[in-house]
Amino acid sequence: MKIATFNINGVKARLPRLLEWLEETRPAVACLQEIKSQDEGFPISEFEKLGYKGLWHGQKSFNGVAILADGEMPVEVQRGLEGEPEDDHSRYLEADVFGLRVACIYLPNGNPVPGPKFDYKLRWMKRLRARMAQIRSEEVPAIVTGDFNVIPHDRDVWSPPAMAADALMQPESRNAYFRLLGDGWTDAIATHNPKGGVWTYWDYQAGAWPRDHGFRIDHALLSPELADRLVACGVDKDHRGREKASDHAPVWVSLRA
């Protein structure tokens, strides 16, 4: 079974590329971030033509997450994170599908540092950790995947000095991410690529894509019940190089049934 995540950077703007990717790779579950669409405008009919059913948590022009499943309707468990009632950002969606608990996240970027956006990022990560602890306590096979907006290690970026001042690489961001791993979650891509050098994002600016100046911020964290079923994982890098592509590439994990 293949579970994938893809920050699509606008579901309507990238729809041809997204449909192309779904047809070519056919993940059982596809988690999408930055759909940038209100709920009523999400193009679910286009995905249904391919056999996918889905849930989505939209927001006008910004953020937004969705979970698509091949031939099965995901059963919603939770949308949004508890702990900050005034937070109206659409960044978290959780569902049960194919016997798995799937959480799709779009973690705040946090720039500029210091500032209120970085403070919000750290609070959001604390709330995420609390929810992930609840999931762990249920002892279900679970995956939390999406755009974490955290570069975990220097080996996960083409040039550490180039990103040193960015919120994605601050010690506080990294420490919050490492606490998730310390709670028992497995970073699938890191496990299979211990030397690093795997990128999932290339900026549109400064020739980042042709120069391969990228970094890894899209992650798939597996619960202990699911980590033992990990067979393979990877990045569909070639999709980043296509016309009118997202600035992210899809990330996937393959699991034993």
Tell me what you see in this structure.
About 25% of the residues lie in helices and about 25% in strands. By secondary structure, it is an alpha+beta fold. The protein has a single domain (about 1-255), classed as Deoxyribonuclease I, Chain A (4-Layer Sandwich). The mean pLDDT is about 100.
Keywords:
globular; alpha+beta; single chain; 6-stranded mixed β-sheet; Deoxyribonuclease I, Chain A; 257 residues; 7 helices
Short description:
With 257 residues, the chain is α+β, with helices and mostly antiparallel strands.
What low-confidence regions span 5 or more consecutive residues with pLDDT below 50? none
Oligomer: single chain
CATH architecture label name: 4-Layer Sandwich
- Strand % is 25-35%
Order of helices and strands: EHEHEEEEEHEHHEHEEEHEE
CATH class: Alpha Beta
Largest sheet: 6 strands, mixed
Count of discrete structural domains: 1
Mean pLDDT: 98
Rounded radius of gyration (Å): 17 Å
> In terms of structural class, how would the helical and strand content be classed?
alpha+beta
**Count of β-strands:** 14
The end-to-end distance, rounded to whole angstroms, is 6 Å
| Helix content estimate | 10-25%
Write down the overall geometry.
globular
Strand order of the largest sheet: 3-4-2-1-14-13
CATH topology (level 3) name: Deoxyribonuclease I, Chain A
Question: Would you spell out the secondary-structure blueprint of this structure?
Answer:
Blueprint: E1 2-7, H1 15-25, E2 29-33, H2 44-48, E3 52-57, E4 65-70, E5 75-79, E6 92-97, E7 100-106, H3 116-138, E8 142-147, H4 160-163, H5 171-182, E9 186-187, H6 188-192, E10 201-202, E11 214-215, E12 218-222, H7 224-227, E13 230-235, E14 251-255
Parallel strand pairs: 1-2, 7-8
Antiparallel strand pairs: 1-14, 2-4, 3-4, 5-6, 6-7, 8-12, 9-12, 10-11, 13-14
Cofactor: Mg(2+); Mn(2+)
Site (Transition state stabilizer): 149
Site (Important for catalytic activity): 218
